[in-house]
Amino acid sequence: MKGNKLLLSAAEVIFCHEHRHLDWPSESWFECEILENPDLINESIIIEALRVPGNKIVLTKFLEENQFDFSEDTWGIRWNSDNHPRKDQPESEVRWFHSSSIIDRENLLLWATNVTKKGRIAEVLIVDNEQAVVTYNITSENPKGSLIPPSENIIEEIKNYKRTKIDNQKTFIHYEGLWPCDQIGIDYNQGRIIDNVSEKFLLSTEKDWNAETSLFSELLKRGLHPRPGFKYGTLWRCYDQKIGNDHAPWLIVTPSKQPINWENACLASRLAAGVNKIWLQPLKINQIWDFLAILRPPANARWTNPNRK
């Protein structure tokens, strides 16, 4: 500002008090501020997690529309320690949430897509009840494989095989010779076990499909091979090539409207990263399937607050 003065948000005042030896504006300032803004402590912790490693973060509420092109819902724009807002493009756009917050998956996906189009990283920082911070990157993924989707002739061929209903809404299909499509069913003793999702895909028309069957069809069209993901806590694990050539790169969860909070999403993402896979939440927007990914960033970009006692 004029006269070499700085305009600080309340959260930045806390940071400067903790790390730049700045006195409180008044004795009662902190007490009054947290009464006005219940999120203030969490916001100050997020700023601390970003700035202590040397990042430069500018809050969007201080920016005029013509200063930087940033996406709606972006809380702050981040530059790494080697760059500066006056001469360099930002590296990322940032949002923050509490671990108990329910995720608006469609909003998050659209935000990440817009941020990525600008050549920036879509970063979210999550703060928990212990005031600990973790960082995740949000992307819109486009999983594709090299397998050939089943043709209408192959589907008709499978429909004509003899079938027997077995437990848990599954069907055993009897066949001789070569099974025409590896992506459908699980091989067992000169037969094939088909689950209820595959059964609906084979025997009903698209207008009668539920979300799981529609997603299954989409994965097949993308050249993928979905297999049960029970041991990973997901609906499917998805291979992009013939099974045995490599591991399954993706874990696909049920396309459910059931609310999910950041605590659950972060746990799922961390578990997926631990087995070298990407956790994907499928979303159907305007009749098109898209895939939201919540990824652990590289080790040098996992912003967290200093250790607290």
Q: Give the strand content.
A: 15-25%
Low-confidence stretches: none
Helical residue percent?
Answer: 25-40%
What's the CATH first level of the domain at 10-143 and 297-301? Alpha Beta
Strand order of the largest sheet: 1-2-3-4-5-14-13-12-11-10
User: Describe the biggest sheet?
Assistant: 10 strands, mixed
End-to-end separation? 37 Å
Query: Secondary-structure element order, as H and E?
Result: HHHEEEHEEHEEEEHHEEEHEE
Overall morphology = elongated
Number of DSSP E strands: 14
Structural class: alpha+beta
* Total helical segments: 8
- CATH topology name of the domain at 10-143 and 297-301, in short, is Trna Endonuclease, Chain: A, domain 1
* Whole-number mean pLDDT: 93
Topology:
Blueprint lengths: L9 H10 L9 H8 L3 H12 L4 E4 L16 E4 L12 E7 L6 H13 L3 E7 L5 E9 L10 H8 L2 E4 L5 E4 L11 E2 L3 E4 L1 H8 L7 H11 L3 E4 L7 E4 L10 E3 L9 H13 L3 E8 L2 E8 L14
Parallel strand pairs: 3-4, 12-13
Antiparallel strand pairs: 1-2, 2-3, 4-5, 5-14, 6-7, 7-9, 8-9, 10-11, 11-12, 13-14
Features:
309 residues; alpha+beta; Trna Endonuclease, Chain: A, domain 1; ten-stranded mixed β-sheet; four-stranded antiparallel β-sheet; 8 helices
